[in-house]
Amino acid sequence: MDVRVNPSQQTRSKRVTVPEIYRKAARILKSAEERKGSLKNLIYSSGFRDVKPLYALVAESCKHQIELDELVNNTAGLQNVQPFDPHLARILITELLWGKGYLKPENARAIRIILELENDLRQALDGMNSQEDKDSIHQISAPRYVRVNTLVSTTEKVCTKLIAEGWKQVKSKKKTGYEGFIERVKSLSENEFIMDFHLDFLLVFPSSAQFHNHDFLRNGSILLQDKASCLSAVALQTKPFYGKMIDACSAPGMKTSLLAALSNNQSSIIAIERDAKRCNTLRQTVSNARASKVSVQRADFLNLDPSDYQDVKYILVDPSCSGTGIVNRLDPKRKPEEGASLELRLKRLSSLQSRLVEHAATFPSVERIVYSTCSIHEEENEAVVRQVLSKIGNSFRLDEALPWWPRRGTNSYDNPPDDIIGLKCVRAEAEKDLTNGFFIALFVRMGES
Known about the structure:
Elements: H1 7-13, H2 20-33, H3 39-44, H4 51-63, H5 65-74, H6 76-79, H7 86-98, H8 109-116, H9 118-129, E1 144-148, H10 155-164, E2 168-170, H11 177-186, E3 192-195, E4 202-205, H12 215-218, E5 222-223, H13 227-236, E6 244-247, H14 254-262, E7 269-273, H15 276-288, E8 294-298, E9 312-317, H16 339-360, E10 368-373, H17 382-392, E11 396-399, H18 421-424, E12 426-428, H19 430-433, E13 438-445
Parallel strand pairs: 2-3, 6-7, 6-9, 7-8, 9-10
Antiparallel strand pairs: 1-4, 1-5, 3-4, 10-13, 11-13, 12-13
Helix pairs in contact: 2-4, 2-7, 4-7, 5-7, 7-8, 13-14, 16-17
């Protein structure tokens, strides 16, 4: 289809601009491709007033990157319109085909072009979906995880309301165990959900489920948080779970709000974030989650004086990392970073990560430290644990994190005491656990149970 825009139409539509959310999302895609930051950091530093729908739109676009490349590069109408930002085209097509299903304002030039091509785009997509290799487009399809915020509601109340809305709650057969649960999650139909196998505050839905405009999200009853991201806060938990805590690298605040929920708002939590924009996002998350005992501080955790925090018992360190465990983070067709470039980046990251955990160990009353990443690289995970233990091993031991979790760390070290690192740490794997790739280590002060 050949789309031609006559001059008079162009002049009349100049005053109508594409909505900000689409323009922001397109810039984020472009910056991510140019490796100017992780998607999460780019989104939360974008300055957009409401990051939730922006995050959802960008994530959906990344999820369908292969199809979008095919549509943008092979739709004749788009090739005949110049200039046209390919990243904006991807975002608008995402919203039309996998999002709201419509685009407004219809007289904005870019939107008008996409709408005029709607039939061509849908036909091309149908053709792709009918190919025999359809299933190879996404080797890993992560489900939608919904965390019930127990500071606002209960799992029972949320489930009851969802069932009333037309959702069907299903169960996996107890005898099949965790593997049976995973298979049941894979087979969820569009209207089904299931309670998580390990965490009773977590509900699992098919990946197509949308909650970004749900009343539960607006009133804080639920949060959209991947299961693996929940595990680090759970690993820090003791029973009873009371005492002052620090979340050392807090934004956007999901783990902070979960710490508040796990302690039932009974523990004071200091949430540290050094970036101003991400700090504002953190405050918004904490407020929406009703985490009343959380105080947000804009600071660099490495610059905190431990003597000013004499009564801190728990510290969560979830620092910047390569993010290589995040499912559908970037274009799956793009060649991953490798060689000297990756080696240098991992070296810099692991150095910072080690310093953060070592600094956490200098707080005089800290009893438990959890270190976590969403990286698959040993350099950021087991190797960091090894480095940290060489510095703090006289006062802290590596404890077994989440003993009930089926997957442990990589066991690359033969000689004591390093040979236990893999056994003590936790890994979550996208293909086996249907979560983001994740790593957790737990350090406990000597003499503490």
